[in-house]
Hints:
seven-stranded mixed beta sheet
Amino acid sequence: MAGPTRYTGYPDYSSTGTSKFIPEVWAGKLTTKFYATTCFGSIASTDFQGDVKGLGDNVIIRSRPTITINDYQIGQTLTYEHPEQANTTLAIDRAKSFSFGLNDVDRYQSDIALMDEFTDDATEQMQIVIDKDILGTIYGDVAAANAGGSAGVISGNINLGVSGTPLSLTTSNVTDFIVDMGQVLDEQNVPHTGRWLVVPAWVAGLLKKSPLHNANEMGDNVSILRNGRLGMIDRFEIFVSNNLTTVVDGTTSTNCTNVVAGHRAGLTFASQMTEMEELPNPNDFGRLVRGLNVYGFKTIEPNYLAAGYVDKG
């Protein structure tokens, strides 16, 4: 039997089956998929996730103190220090929301799991806007010695590019760039495990065209051209993102990207779906769904981040 006529511009979801909405389940599904699809869920510490209750919260992060190592002679009198544990505040000062409506007829006649479909899309859209927010901010937090044309807290001669003279990457030098980013972190005594590097798609393309495309160059059984995964390069787990900040350099007039690298201990992130509601539609037969996600992020160790200012050579 044909359903009621449809108001102009209203989408048609109808077929057979039902779609149910349970706020707690829906929020849980969104959060799970949210972290599975983001790169910031992998590049930042999320240890304080459970401490977030709502927008405006302040999460107190206790930092590990530095213990002084002294020379020792037999019989000497030891002096004892009292380490101070510094605190860092993570402000939950950002929020994103979504809202949509669903007609009762469509809700009962749909042959697809509308909750899953809408969860997936809400997750993807939220991931994009928050990714851009984080990746567009943290490159400015990098320690001065970990960026620019004379990077390296010890060497001071590593060129990672600077405004006006970006580092032009090609298939010949793209791996050198990654190795240099690694050296910058080495000179800051950043742990080798847990490092990450976020690159734009065009840098990923250069890597696939570089000598790394040969499996024997990497010691792997399958080349990156065969499996499509960049994997680990010089201790970095490589992430490809379209959400890095790109600008037109005022001197070279080229599109330049702020590439960021670091260690999970350098950045913290927390997010929480604080509101997930289903309401009756006052103007139609159906339901209204809305959700609020609050979050915050902070660079807690600038020495654990590095940045490159690059264009395509």
